[in-house]
Amino acid sequence: MSRWHKNKQSAVTSVSNTDNFSQAVLNWFAVNGRKDLPWQQKTGAYSIWISEIMLQQTQVDTVIPYFRRFMQQFPDVNSLANAPLDSVLQHWSGLGYYARARNLHRAAQVLCEQHEGQLPQNLEALCALPGIGRSTAGAILALAFEQRQSILDGNVKRVLCRYYAISQWSGQSAVTKQLWELADKHTPMQQVAAYTQAMMDMGATVCSRSRPHCDLCPLATGCQALAQDIIKNCPAPKPRKPLPERQTRMLMLQTLGSGDILLSQREQQGIWGGLWSFPECPAEQTAEHWCAQHLGITINKPDKKHYWPVRQHCFTHFRLNIEPVHILLDATESQKITDLLVTQGNSLWYHPQQEAHFGLAAPVAKLIQQLK
Predict the structure, then answer these.
(1) Could you name the CATH architecture of 245-371?
(2) Domain of life of the organism in this record (predicted)?
(3) Which pTM does this prediction carry?
(4) Residue 131 phi, psi dihedral angles, 5° rounding
(5) What is the CATH number of domain 152-179+206-240?
(6) CB 92 within 8 A of CB 73
(7) Domain coordinates in residue numbering, the chain
(8) Is the CB of residue 194 less than 8 Å from the CB of residue 200?
(9) Strands 276-277 and 261-265
(10) Which residues contact 366 (CB under 8 A, 6 or more apart)?
(11) DSSP assignment, residue 325?
(12) Which of 168, 248, 346, 349 is most buried per CB count within 10 Å?
């Protein structure tokens, strides 16, 4: 187990090559740091890796239940590498940013194929794995192996920007370069794991984005943004552009009698890659025309189709306006679809009451819940 899991006293001991900044952070962590997170209770680099990927762009409280379920199903790299991607995506469903799950699965396979199932203890080799960038690699090496590696996630960027009164957007290349230099400057030679966790904890719980608790911050006396009363301006938010909007129709094709609904697996690339979803038709095409063209069925009877209210799903770069269309099928129509799509293996009939053993796109899961 990493040394940062030891008692509080070890973290307050004076450390060689530790400046005032990092010593203050370590002292704070000894008393206030989070030491009971589920991935801190497990040994080995595997759980650290899984948690760091889950924590990318996702808050700790959201990650905890997903991490527990994921580790129960995939307790080691071999079980993850050998699992069907559908199963991996199922245990990721609802966490978002599904490329992370696909990258985890592929990285586990690479580890088994090229690294004997072990995470390499080398920054460059770690960064070569799918889904692992410089900061994530640094966190894994620091937390799991006590290597002196710097990290620069969103929390650390915010702490450094405020301490040095850097008011530009942290995503600018020049600012990012400066922040990496500062991160490396303050990373101590020893107790690296404790320091790394402390910086993440401080950014999340004390130096938070909207309501920082400067009165509780161990760096307050040297914080230039606090001294200049510009905390809220450091760092500047990412320049926002109006999000474009896209339109689609989701066809909820459901058989009369059995109540089964048709789901199709999406392409591995693109939004919801590899997840299961309703068939979609472009907004400019009617559901009737699409079904006749692609499925060979007629749905002109008013009592067989119902248009549900449009709902919006937000992605990072656009908003998707979804118009769900509930379409009831008789036995002949459902058999046509079975012969045309289901026998090919990329579509299936799914009953809303069943437990899904595959990943569902978030709005699809909500619509299925309504169909129950």
Answers:
(1) Alpha-Beta Complex (3.90)
(2) Bacteria
(3) 0.80
(4) 85, 5
(5) 1.10.1670.10
(6) no
(7) 3-149+187-202, 152-179+206-240, 245-371
(8) no
(9) antiparallel
(10) none
(11) E
(12) 349
75 upstream amide cis, omega within 30 of 0: no
Q: What is the DSSP string of 239-285?
A: PP-PPPEEEEEEEEEEETTT--EEEEEPPSSSTTTT-EE--EEETTS
- The confidence score (pLDDT) of residue 372 equals 78
> 359: number of CA atoms within 13 Å, CB side?
28
And the tokens for 367?
């619509």
- Token pair 């911050």 is found at 217
Cα gap 42→45, rounded to integer Å: 9
Q: Are the C-beta atoms of 222 and 339 separated by less than 8 Å?
A: no
Are 162 and 222 in contact, with CB atoms under 8 Å apart? Answer: no
Q: Is 146 left (phi over 0), alpha (psi -120 to 50) or beta?
A: left
Q: Active-site residue among 52, 124, 181, 245?
A: 52
Q: What is the mean pLDDT of each run of 10 residues along the chain (372 residues)?
A: 35 48 96 92 88 93 95 96 94 90 96 96 96 97 96 96 95 95 96 96 94 96 96 91 90 92 89 90 89 87 86 89 94 90 86 85 90 82
The DSSP secondary-structure symbol of 355 reads: P
Query: For residue 15, what pLDDT is reported?
Result: 36
Look at residues 187, 155, 203, 180 and name the one whose alpha carbon lies nearest to residue 21. 187
For strands 319-329 and 305-307, give the pairing: antiparallel
CA proximity to 33, closest of 191, 210, 235: 191
Instruction: Report the candidate in 276, 281, 218, 275 with the shortest Cα–Cα distance to residue 248.
Output: 281
Other C-beta atoms within 10 Å of 260: how many?
A: 18
* Fold annotation for 3-149+187-202: Endonuclease III; domain 1 (1.10.340)
CB 217 within 8 A of CB 223: yes
Longest distance between any two alpha carbons in the chain, whole Å: 79
Specify whether 323 is catalytic: no
* End-to-end C-alpha distance for the chain, whole angstroms: 46
